[in-house]
Amino acid sequence: MTQTEIERPKPNGLEGVVAASTELSHVFGDIGKLVYRGYDIHELAGKASFEEVAHLLWIGHLPNQEELHELERKFGENRVLPEAVIEGLRQVPKGANPMDALRTGVSLLGAVDEDHFNDEAPTLDEAIELAARFPAILATFSRLRDGKEPVQGRSDLNTAQNYLYQLTGEEPEEKHWKSLETYLVLLADHGLNASTFTARVIASTDSDMASALTGAIGALKGPAHGGAPAKVLDMLNEIGTAENVDAWLTDALDNGKRLMGFGHRVYKAEDPRAEILRGMAETASTPEFFALSKTTEDRALAMLDERKPGRKLYTNVEFYSAAVLAAVGLPGDMFPPTFAVSRSVGWSAHVLEQASNNRLIRPQSEYIGPTDLKYKPLDER
Ligand code: ACO
Known about the structure:
Blueprint: E1 25-28, E2 33-36, E3 39-40, H1 41-44, H2 50-59, H3 65-77, H4 83-91, H5 98-112, H6 124-145, H7 159-168, H8 174-186, H9 194-204, H10 209-220, H11 228-239, H12 245-254, H13 272-284, H14 287-307, H15 317-328, H16 335-356
Antiparallel strand pairs: 1-2, 2-3
Helix pairs in contact: 2-16, 3-6, 4-5, 4-6, 5-6, 5-10, 6-7, 6-16, 7-8, 8-13, 8-15, 8-16, 9-10, 9-16, 10-16, 11-15, 12-14, 13-15
The structure holds acetyl coenzyme *A (ACO).
């Protein structure tokens, strides 16, 4: 293609552009439907374990008993972090954002694991290792910042149980790990979202799995993506009571702020995960907190409809994630990296898919600057 034949620039933010083919998941934005390899998310949430969903995404089908045991065994044996990663996490400032600690830990893991994360094609074993170690990295950082020593992961627990166990040093209550497990199932993959695209771009350069997931964590961190639920909790805490809802939302919108937990690039109907999480929040959180969340949601939707007619702004996954994760006992700043614990499976599945049929992802930009400037020596500028 010559310079003059180059296509016109794509829409801002690549909106509507199809940039990859995938068998992993799809967001049907107009009807609010999410599918993992053919299964509607409602089929899996509350029924499938996180490990079953990981098997589905990585290998292509829901596991039989034997396959599930084998995958659970591999998760279990990968939960212990290399000493160098624990030492590295000791150097992360206690006040750091846990997303930064996670990004640092995963990057370090890529550097210290001699067998994996090399120039060879990415493997399923690397995907399992990373998915098993995301919670370990986070729990280690969380304990260190609280002045406690890390707790070693256990191979007899599932991912949700073990994450809470490594965080607290105590076996979690069933209601807590089960809520967390459903949350992890709901967030595991979501089409070509910004962090998954990032992971695929990195994989397309034949880089390694740890690099791809390190980059993806960086993309997820922003509040336009996975950074929102911590801010939802801040918003609800600031609002405090039902009487304050209207005044708080009006002030935020008058000042041009975006309401966290609302709107989505692809969904122009309610996010199906929001619907499931709303139901979970109603059971899991205190009646007062759920009532405040629901009043805030109802008023926010009404105000957004009034102020942004036709934009189809609905509740997204992050709004009720906040209530569910708070009820599980996690602090607000651990919400975004807990999202990453789940999405590590989707990211690595996309890396494997990209590597299996790779072509370098390398778009072009439309150059809008000048072309004929002349160099002037320093003393003439
Ligand atoms: N609050 C107020 N107004 C909003 C919101 C919101 N949450 N979301 C969109 N809008 C408005 C925009 O200001 C814009 O108005 P305009 O047409 O008058 O300029 C219009 O709706 C369309 O918004 P866009 O910016 O085109 O939407 P985009 O697809 O780029 O953004 C995004 C999607 C980033 C999620 C946005 O809705 C947002 O910022 N939401 C709040 C943050 C959030 O909840 N993030 C989590 C997303 S879910 C996830 O990634 C897991």
